[in-house]
Amino acid sequence: MSVVNIKDSDVDIIIGALRSDLTSFMNEWRSIFSRFHLIIVKDPDLNEELKIPEGFNVDVYAKSHMDHVVGSSTSVLFSGYSCRYFGFLISRKKYIVSIDDDCVPAKDEKGFLVDAVDQHIMNLTTPATPFFFNTLYDPYREGADFVRGYPFSLRNGVMCALSCGLWLNLADFDAPTQALKPGQRNSRYVDAVMTVPARAMMPISGINIAFDREVIGPTLLPALRLAGEGKLRWETMEDIWSGMCVKIVCDHLGMGVKSGLPYVWRRDRGNAIESLKKEWEGVKLMEEVVPFFQSVRLPRTAATAEDCVVEIAKAVKQKLGPLDPVFARAAEAMSEWIKLWKALGSGSLPL
Amino acid sequence: MAGSSIKPTPLLKDELDIVIPTIRNLDFLEMWRPFFEQYHLIIVQDGDPSKTIKVPDGFDYELYNRNDINRILGPKASCISFKDSACRCFGYMVSKKKYIYTIDDDCFVAKDPSGKEINALEQHIKNLLSPSTPLFFNTLYDPYREGADFVRGYPFSLREGVPTAVSHGLWLNIPDYDAPTQLVKPLERNTRYVDAVLTIPKGTLFPMCGMNLAFNRELIGPAMYFGLMGDGQPVGRYDDMWAGWCMKVICDHMGWGVKTGLPYIWHSKASNPFVNLKKEYNGIFWQEEIIPFFQSSVLPKECTTVQKCYIELAKQVKEKLGKIDPYFIKLADAMVTWIEAWDELNSSEGKPAKLLNGTA
């Protein structure tokens, strides 16, 4: 690892498997993943056996494990893309990197393979600067620094809790956007990492993320499940919801969220128009979600990520619950999740 | 949803003035000729007014030296700095155009990674003519750029964006570092071309550099006062910073956006870090108080114009920063003088500045 003081054993790579044959996925990532411990969590709705190539240090979890650990009525929390959260729950590592199973390593503009794990860890282990925007982006990157006019007292930065990476080829557009521009592919490699300023809201895509589980773990949570949620990202909002919570909590606790590098290459999959026909509810729900998160105020007494999630869940139940049952269910799921986290999120592994 | 067709960028040659402060010479304009020749230039000559600054042939320009500034503004000329590039804001005041592009005389045409020369002005125009998105961060940066769009989860009701007031460009080669950083890293050069334009979120401040900057003068012009710097002042190299903080607070209040990122220019000259340190010295300490001041500044809703916002800010500067140093009281007064001068020169009944200036 190119980062000083971080051991490979501090990292878990957690993959939610929504497809059964992971051979090509794992082989593409082999040179980057093979030195880490991997947790692969199978979507409980997936019936086929997982195919995983040899040569990895990997633990695989499936519905049976979930039922055993949390009970079969609770394991519905982990259906679809949310299966990865089971991995987040039981991991005991400080840093988690999680990438969708339809993504492979990208190449940078010089043609070199991007080590997404290395870049994520670099992002998490250098400070974030949420209180003042640096126009040369991440000042801790080699070849950059704080610009003239950046207050010195803010140059120590704060802890970076989450690193949100980007995607070449199939960008994370919603279904209406991709349906309108079916041929649009992202070929722009933007060589920057930046801290998203405090109080700025953002859509944190779950496709390519990493986080400090020790500080922010419980805030990545499976809560907002669309009525028609499906097995394509166009048919989900769970990560967007989780990400809005993460940003509020980070802002409240004085931690940072970075966005930008690393890129992954996201393979073409699915049909946006089909997804749009099936599921457009998510797009409508965001209109309610945004004003809610703009107005959420966390009390000073909420000093940990768990406390914050409990407060947000309360507010969701009160303010959003009456608007749509999906929010009432989300609030319940959040409370349930915190109970799980408190019971199972630390100490020796239950399995 | 952002448009997908590529339309040619309008030149805006009758709607945009290029304001250049200079104390040396304008040789750099030769390199910019293909990009600037069609535009009207406003040259603000700092320093000794008896010196003649030669403008390369073929450019349409007005030139103002200190004598002109004194003549045009009379006693109000006290708000315009002397021996500091802050004097450039006089150019904003006398311009009659909708847009301003300002550039330093040690900034040259940069090349993008493919080796192609960058038309900085064209990119600034693109930035100014497309909306900003300060209310929700788009992780794929400017969604109105060709090849980009809003990402999943971006609320549709916010996709129209808001008007863009300012476009802040960046610099390759010599980065805009402060003196302490320059002293520690004298050899560092910015070689990283970041292919992005992004909106700085509402409520977030940033250090605005005046080296490569464009703005909608009709929207935000009166807020672009570059303060009291240079000769006789206790601080320098904080002119653009000051303007940027005032501007951002006002843009946030008025619901306008500020973009940063492309275009890059090539910054060729590293100023002397020891000289810079002396200029910046007070600013480095003062900014620790100035920043929290701007971060917590609230403009009442009665401030419905930029001028009203600016006068209110000046009041707050006097009240809250006055106790740090009497300089801020002078600065607050100068801010008011600036607005008075701006309104005089730009009122619909007032005489246009051109009639008063005999040198163009």
TrEMBL record, chain A:
Catalytic activity: UDP-beta-L-arabinofuranose = UDP-beta-L-arabinopyranose
Transport recorded as keyword: no
Entry EC number(s): 5.4.99.30
Compartmental location: Golgi apparatus
EC main group: isomerase
Keyword terms, alphabetized: Cell wall biogenesis/degradation, Glycoprotein, Golgi apparatus
Pfam families listed in its UniProt record: RGP
Main location: Golgi
Protein purpose: Probable UDP-L-arabinose mutase involved in the biosynthesis of cell wall non-cellulosic polysaccharides.
Family note: Belongs to the RGP family.
PANTHER family hit by this protein: UDP-ARABINOPYRANOSE MUTASE 5-RELATED, UDP-ARABINOSE MUTASE
Protein name per UniProt: UDP-arabinopyranose mutase
Lineage: Eukaryota, Viridiplantae, Streptophyta, Embryophyta, Tracheophyta
Automatic annotation (TrEMBL), chain B:
Catalytic activity: UDP-beta-L-arabinofuranose = UDP-beta-L-arabinopyranose
Top EC class for this record: isomerase
One Pfam family linked to the record: RGP
Keywords carried by this UniProt record: Cell wall biogenesis/degradation, Glycoprotein, Golgi apparatus, Isomerase
InterPro entries noted in UniProt: Nucleotide-diphossugar_trans (IPR029044), RGP (IPR004901), RGP_fam (IPR037595)
Cell compartment(s), UniProt: Golgi apparatus
EC number of this enzyme: 5.4.99.30
Entry keyword annotation includes Glycoprotein: yes
Broad class of where this protein is predominantly found: Golgi
Functional summary from the UniProt entry: Probable UDP-L-arabinose mutase involved in the biosynthesis of cell wall non-cellulosic polysaccharides.
Family as reported in the entry's similarity comment: Belongs to the RGP family.
Name by which UniProt lists this protein: UDP-arabinopyranose mutase
Organism: Hevea brasiliensis (Para rubber tree)
